[in-house]
């Protein structure tokens, strides 16, 4: 059964997916009261909410996990799907994917000797180069982002040894790039080797074996919701395909060019209640 929300001329929606950082979350990593109110209003009308994020499960904000409107979480850019309707303690892993070992070896080979740092994710934990965590200020991160990074990563002295030791179970992997390294060249090399790689910030390449749009399609199948009854919000290149696949894709004003090009409309920035504004206007 389709849920019709709002007045007759407004869109219908049964499932609403939203990215977190740069989209639903403000720069201080909080969710505005207006966004909370809109999410509650639509949830009461039967809409299912999905958090679709590059974050790992361990890094999901409590504001999301404690909000009963959110039934699913797509984490690590599509590498895993969780049922979070019962909060952090009651979460259930529904599906996950792993980076093929040969892809991991190739990435380590082509980045050997380059001024990069590594991150990896498995068993619901995130690991990062200790040197990067000690001083991430040179990568354009805000104080809130640095605090988040240090709270959600376990420091590892030698990531180039640590990653191969855990190669069989990696859900995700990040390459943090010095500005002297050509991001586009590395991305092209990886994609030419059949590796799925995306990005959500200027100094980051994010690798997994799935994508947000693929994972969202899986959730849509679980709920028997067609694309035309789905709305998706995002701000980064890693959101573009998800916005393009949804019935209505909404990019943030602060979004990347690729994200905006894939969207049906652009709303306000994450710091100006863009998600709440769009939900109020179109649903």
What does this structure look like?
It is a single chain. By secondary structure, the protein is α/β, with parallel strands linked by helices. It folds into two domains: 154 residues, 3-Layer(aba) Sandwich (Rossmann fold), CATH 3.40.50; 108 residues, Hypothetical Protein, Haloacid Dehalogenase-like Hydrolase, Chain: A, domain 2, CATH 3.30.1240. It contains eleven helices and 14 strands. It has an eight-stranded mixed β-sheet, with helices on both faces. The chain has a six-stranded mixed β-sheet with strand order 8-7-6-9-11-10, with helices on both faces. Helix 10 links the parallel strand 13 and strand 14. The N terminus is likely disordered.
Fold-level CATH name of the largest domain: Rossmann fold
Taken in chain order, the helices and strands follow as EHEHEEEHEEHHEHEHEEHEHEHEH
Distance between the termini: 17 Å
Count of distinct structural domains: 2
CATH superfamily descriptor of the largest domain: HAD superfamily/HAD-like
By helix and strand content, what is the structural category? alpha/beta
Average pLDDT, to the nearest integer? 94
Short description:
It contains 11 helices and 14 strands. With about 280 residues, the protein is of the alpha/beta class.
List keywords for this structure.
Rossmann fold; six-stranded mixed sheet; Hypothetical Protein, Haloacid Dehalogenase-like Hydrolase, Chain: A, domain 2; 283 residues; 14 strands; eight-stranded mixed sheet; alpha/beta; disordered N terminus
